[in-house]
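Inputs:
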Amino acid sequence: DARVTQTPRDKVTEMGQEVTMRCQPILGHNTVFWYRQTMMQGLELLAYFRNRAPLDDSGMPKDRFSAEMPDATLATLKIQPSEPRDSAVYFCASGLGQVPSSYNEQFFGPGTRLTVL
Amino acid sequence: AQSVTQLDSQVPVFEEAPVELRCNYSSSVSVYLFWYVQYPNQGLQLLLKYLSGSTLVKGINGFEAEFNKSQTSFHLRKPSVHISDTAEYFCAVSDRGNQGGKLIFGQGTELSVKP
């Protein structure tokens, strides 16, 4: 059955290292969202794309985070350099933007648990 | 702009007891409303959604929610909970006029079902 996949599921890295997280949206979905979840802040929207173009990345720290969609089947979130405060679970979600019958429903991946030491 | 307030951060309840998780929202436009559930170490999955029509919405796993426009609420209920319902529950709202737009999530309510 169709689902959003994310890799890696777990990542442990040292401060200063580059981290890349990948997301494969559900085939046919044209909107991709990146969220970060922490105990303190809850679920935060970092950025989202429609038809591979960034629509809103206001939730993302610009100096170290970047998000891209190289093609319709792959979204990436990169942190460079990583810091301990970036430790969180990062979720990708996809949906059918501008399709009225989608009602803005989002389908979430299992998340990438990032630990920066 | 919309906002969502989940009134309880934690709800402990005994198995087979009824439960209500409260959600209030604020919006100047018409909205769609959602409840998502997150089991430990998993992503969020949709429990139910209110789009239009009947204000009582039934979802998976025996949950239901009632949309109350005058009170701007969308409370989630289950008449008899199971241990397996232990999870975090998120209420979310989306602007009807913004197709493919953002979901605004509440802070979550942790439901803990005890034997």
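The interface with chain A takes residues 32, 34, 36, 42-46, 49, 51, 90, 94-95, 98-103, 105, 107-108 of chain B (CB under 8 Å). Flag for discussion at group meeting.
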